[in-house]
Each structure stands twice: as C-alpha cells, then as structure tokens.
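Interim report, section 4.2 (structural modelling).
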Amino acid sequence: MNLAAMDQHESSVDEAVAECPQRMKGQQFLAELVRRSGVKAVFFVPTFLYPTLVELAKDPVKRVLCPSEKAAAYMADGYAQASGRPTMVIVQGGPGATNLYAGLADAWQSHTPLLAVTPVLPGSRYQGNSYQEAYVDFRPVTKYDAEVRSIDRMAEFFGKAYREMTTGAPRPVHLYLDGALEDAEAEFDFRYLDPRYFSYPAFRPRADDELVGQALLEIRRAARQVMVCGRGTVVSGAWEEVTALAEQLGLPVTTTLNGKGSIDERHPLALGVTGTYRRPPTDAVIAEADLVLYVGGHQGGATTNMRRLPKPGVRVIHIDINPAQPGANYPNVLPLIGDARTVLRQLLDAAGVTKRSGPGEWVRQAQQDLQAWRAGEHAHMHGNRIPIRPEQLADELVNACPRNTLFVADTGYVGTWAGVFMDLPAGRNFLHCEGSLGWAFPAAMGAKAAAPERTVVAFTGDGGFFYHLAEIETAVRNEINLITVVLNNQAMAFQTHLLRSVWPGSPNLDKLSEFGDTNFAAMAREMGAWAFV
Amino acid sequence: MTDPRDIGKAIREAIDANRPAVIDVVIDQAAVAPVAVMAGQGSRAGTPPASFDRKTDR
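Predicted structure of the assembly:
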C-alpha cells in the first residue's frame, strides 16, 4: 500500500471509529447500508423489509417494485454489471424465494455480485405447516449464504456479505434475515462496513513477478500466439492494457461473448468473438495457435467451443483473479494470479518499449481470413432486404446509437447476431445473458437504472421478450427509459431450424417452436411505453 | 418495423421519447446464426432454411 493509500485508509478507519457505535433500529441500519453502498436503486417483490424501504423514502434511491422475483434478480444483476456496484434484491420467502433462485443462477454464472435478502421463518412457525413455508438452499448459486438471527451481529454479517461479493471472483450472496430484527434496536458497529468493499474489484492484486517474466518469455518464443479476453478483462477495465500489449507483442486478440469491450473491435488486431457463439474464422485461429493467453475468464464451454479449443497440448497462460481457475478446465497452464489490468501492466512493464516490427505472417493470415469472412457476409449486412436481416439490424444499430450506448443481449440466435455483427468500441458497453433466455430485458432495466445518462438497448427476440413482458409496466412506472429492440420472427427460431434439420418430414413441427403473430409495439403502447410505428 | 431504412429514425425517436421504448422488428425468418451450434442448425452451407409457413408482415 502506498503512502497516499495508507493515509486514505487511516482516514476512513478514523472516520469509522469516530462514528461508532451508533444506536439505531435494524431498519435504520439497513437503510444506512444502502446509502453508504452508493447505489441508486434496489429491487424488490413484497412483502419483506417494508420498514427499511419506508426509511429510504426521502433518499434519491429508486425502490423498484417488480412483479417477479426472477426479474428483480436480473435487474440487480444488470445494475451491478453496468455500475461496478452490487445492489440489493429483496424478496419474500417460501415459493417466492424459489423464483429468486433462478435469477441468481445467471449472476452466479457471469460472476456478478448482488446481495439477495429473504426472510427466515421465526422459530415459533418453523415446521408448523406455516403459510408459504418452503425452504430454499441458495448455496449452489451463491458465494456466501448465512442466516442473520441476532441484531447484535447484523453489521458483521452484512459486512461479510460485501467482502465476499467484491473480492476474488465476484459472485452473488444471500442472507436469510429475521424480519423482527428490523424493529429491534442495538449498537451498530459501522467499521464492519468498509467502503472499499462496496464496489468491485475491491482489490487489484499483482501476479508473481517471476511467473510474469516466464510468461513473457514463452509468449515471445511461440510462433502462433493469440489472446482470449473474458468478462474479467472488462470488469477490471483493462481494455487499454489489452490493446497496448497486443500492439507491443503483435498478438491477435479474440474475446468471449461477455468479453466484448476488451478491445475496440475495429482495431486491426481484433478478430472478434470466439467459442460457440463465434465468428467462424476466429476459432480457426485458436485451433492453429501454439500458445493461448487467457485474460479474466473461466474457459467455459461457450469459450472453448464445448472443450474443443485450444487443441490438446497447446500451452496456455491464464491471468485470473481466482487462484483456482487457471488450469481448472485445461492442463498445461501457467497461472498468473491477479487482477487483469494489474497483471497486463506487469507484462507491459516487463516487455519494455521495443515494439515488434509490424504484424508477422501469423497475424496477417488471421486478418486476411477475417476480411474474407466479412466480404462473405456483405449481402447479409448491407443487402437492404425486406424483411430486414438480423445481421444488418445488429450492424446498423451500432451506427444509429450514440457511441457510449450499452447493449444488453439475450442468449440464442440474438446473442450470436449481437456478438458477431456488432463491432463495438472498447469499454463497458456490452452485457450478455450467461444463462436463461429472457434475461436481457430486465437486466437492461437494471443497467439503465444504474446509468440513466447512457442509452441502454436491450437486444432480444420474441421468445426472450415473452418471459418478462410485465416489466414494461415496471419500466414505465419507475421512468427507466431503456430502448428494447425485439427481433420478432414469431418463433424460437434456434429450435425451429434444429427441428427442421433433424426431423424434416415430421408433421406439425410448428407446434414445437413457433408462436402466434404478436404485435409487441401495440402491447408496449398499451402499457404506457413508446413504440415505433 | 421491417425496413432497414427505418432503423436510424426509430432509434432517434426512441431516444427522444423520454419513456421506455419498444421497437418491434419483424425479421427474416430464414436468418440463422453464422455457425452451426447444434446439428445442422445455423449452417450457412447447403440449402438455407425457408421462411415459416405462417409468416405475416404488418
């Protein structure tokens, strides 16, 4: 820690000591926690923690009432990804909590922190066939899961929750809370709530310098190197370092779908998205590589195209903040454990100022293959067909929107079209569904609540939009003015094409994947939104 | 919306609306992903998928 940081640290500790302890009610403590965490919105489904929500009445914090727990979790997910600050999702227990579980699964997969709070049943009603008595085990989808039953330890448990959320690999947490504690009074020790843990990454650890030197040596010795940037690169804000290292060492750069933004996709060294939802020539580069540098990702199935890439035996260098991640899904790995931006700077420092003299043959071939692919897609992207091709829609949306627009894409075909045909600048400008179809619309609402000054576009299909249509009313009521672009082909087209390919002669295949003709614009207008005519 | 020439206008009006906005885009049903994710699906090789039977434009 440098001197300035030490001064700041001592100052914040002093302030905390000076104000501690404070006597207040549990509801006042929770409201104060929301204020101190710096979030602009919390998301909830009644009826839990109403006293706390009432405490926040005069604060500039949106209290977003949602019709479904899953959508509320998705909003908190989008909020954290857009702002770098985890917020709270508050829902009822029992069957309602089971809906929350599904929402947390997406955040679990995308390594997104959010704090879920549900009520714990008091002992007098436990196992008594109580109304809505059902128990949910949140441990498979949370990094930390605990019961808060004592007013005296409330600050400690909430402090632990924020520490778990924002350090190492960020992920959701859940607290069961005894609702009676809201009205109870105690001395609260705010030193448990260190403001450094209210945003992520809370810390930016360095990798081992010796391993950094070894990695650099191996990158330089390899003949066909490629960088693959995952979501952790964007979370770390490492796009400038990615670009600088690529230019310094002559490395072509690919990204995972959620790693879009790690480099400007019009940069000559940027090849686009790799993995299952890919540009075809991009995976070919990884298939031919003799060294792959992964930055901030978990080498999951979508990134490795179902564990087909890289080829067995290829040397892998993996930068990740989670010490257990490098090598977990692939052998022959040199681990560089630390924050992506910090470790890339270490590599840049070690590389010195000598630049490679222009792209080598390996890079030139990759660039030519990408250009050939772009030429082959020209008719799809610029053909002006009616009805419009989704490739052209994805491409032209980027041109039509302001440069700092945040695009939030669903999974399925829509995810591929967005990932492959939207060439985006570097930065936090793209979020993608890691789990369930339908995530994009509510997640984009959360993102817009976090960044009201930016244009936020949900990019979804009719199959995805159907999931959470009721949230149109939530957006209208809370003045969350996002734009939703619905690619309407009256089907889950991914499935339609699969069915027609595998069972071409089967009767009534349309019953298995196609919808009726739905006018989403008319529906949106009816609910108070604006719709294009 | 189904005409590519309307995209810019739709986005401009949506931003100016100062309300949540929905742009319902009727797309080509034959459009697939650029690569095959599962058996035969999304492949640009061979015969492209036809539009669905019940397709209507508004």
